[in-house]
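Researcher: Sequence of Lysozyme follows. Predict its structure.
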Amino acid sequence: MPTPPAAQRPAALRRRRFLGSLRERWSRRRGRAKRLRLSRRKGAAALLSVSAVALAGASDLAIQPGQATPDIEQAAVFDPAIRRDAAKLSASEAMVEALVEEEGVRYRVYRDVAGFPTVGVGHLVLPQDNLRVGQRIGHVRAMELLDADLAKAEDGVRELLDGLPVNQHEFDALVDLVFNVGIGNVSPEESPRLNAAIRAGDYAGIADELDYTAAAGRVARGLIHRSQRRTRIFLEADYGDPRTA
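Model: Prediction complete. Tokens:
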């Protein structure tokens, strides 16, 4: 029997379905963010109009000290190359798609290369998940687990950076790192050179420390490619799969 095309294989179909759901979710998020930006811009425009009228003497309206004003900074469109506080960033759609490509999507609990029970998009099964190897979860729960894991990874990156500004693709690469290896493995004790580079603001040094290729004490080919991809994201904003380059 001939081998079906990759796009028709079950794993590829699961990944495509999952990415489709992610794109819909990101589209809704972008719509909400756009509406929020427009609202803030209208507020900023109203503030400027009121100030102009007051300065012309046509009104006694004025902005008093301490009065709430629109967040003009948040309304601005930022150049993605400009480094910013990580608190203002979250994982990009491109990063999440790359992460799903690397992790795959599995609805049945399995053991990963290190022997840990895993499900969904690389979700490490926890006692509170009430799951065991062989059990299945639904698509919605897999999405929910990914959302929660991404939020943990983003918080872990913000903690790791400790105020060091980054741009979007640098933040994304670090999110992939923390998602992949866990926040404990990038601690000062486990990754002293990475933390030293962050303290020194040495971005090239940070890139040098994104190479994590071993699982359970053995080098895994998949992790080699993932580390290459992560480094390219950090340095070049290149989210492509190095296997297809």
